[in-house]
Structure formats: C-alpha cells, structure tokens
Amino acid sequence: MTAPIQPALDGSIPEPAPRAVDYETWLDTVWPAFVAAAATGRVFTTYEVVDAHRLPQPPNPQAHWGRLMTLLKDQGYIRTAGWACSTRPTTHHSGVRTWRGTAAARREAA
C-alpha cells in the first residue's frame, strides 16, 4: 500500500521522489553522499543526508536504507552516535539513530 500524495498549498501535486531501478545502481548513487557526510565528523541522520542531497529512494525503502547504514558501519566509515527526533515530515518526530563519521573516514577525506 502506498501513502496518499499530499497536494501542495497551491493545489499542485508534487513530483514523487525518484526511485532507483535496482539496488546496486542505487547504492552507487547514494554511497558518495554518505561517505562525504562521514568525512565531516558531524552527527547526522540518514534523512538529513538524503534531504540535503535529494537522493533517490531505493527499490525497497523499508530494508535498503538500514542496509546502507550497516554497510557503511561495517566498512568503518560511520559509528552510532545516539538517537534524535527525526526531521522527516512523515515520521511525526519519532526516534531515529544518529551517526558520526569515524576518525578513519575523516583522515580519508583529508
């Protein structure tokens, strides 16, 4: 079931977020934005990076965003930093994990 489209205040219907055709292509598209976010050393949420870079949705959003963050953590780019209230409009400020780039990610960017 898909969520209903909310019209803008002017009555126009916004374009849906682009969606990648396959997982590998999507991963190649979004990976650099998250590596760059890790290199800053600041605390961030997944949505903040997605929103700032207007990244496409994966083929399976319920599973692939979490898998991406696990891959970044396993590769040593990020570590968990804590929890925050989400800024994503559809989550009603629910709790989300925050991430911070590792020292290795910051050194790689230098």
Structure commentary:
This protein is α+β, with helices and mostly antiparallel strands. It has a single domain, classed as Arc Repressor Mutant, subunit A, CATH 1.10.10.10. It has helices spanning 23-40, 46-53, 61-74, 103-109, and strands at residues 43-44, 78-85, 95-101. The longest helix has 18 residues, at 23-40. 14% of the residues are buried.
Main sheet? 3 strands, antiparallel
Per CATH, the class reads: Mainly Alpha
Q: By CATH's scheme, which homologous superfamily applies?
A: Winged helix-like DNA-binding domain superfamily/Winged helix DNA-binding domain
- Number of helices, counting only DSSP H or I runs of 4 residues or more: 4
Radius of gyration: 15 Å
Shape designation: globular
Look at the helices and sheets and give the structural class.
Answer: alpha+beta
Overall tally of domains? 1
Biggest sheet, strands in spatial order?
Answer: 1-3-2
The total strand number stands at: 3
Keywords for this entry:
about 110 residues, Arc Repressor Mutant, subunit A, 3 strands, about 45% helix, about 15% strand
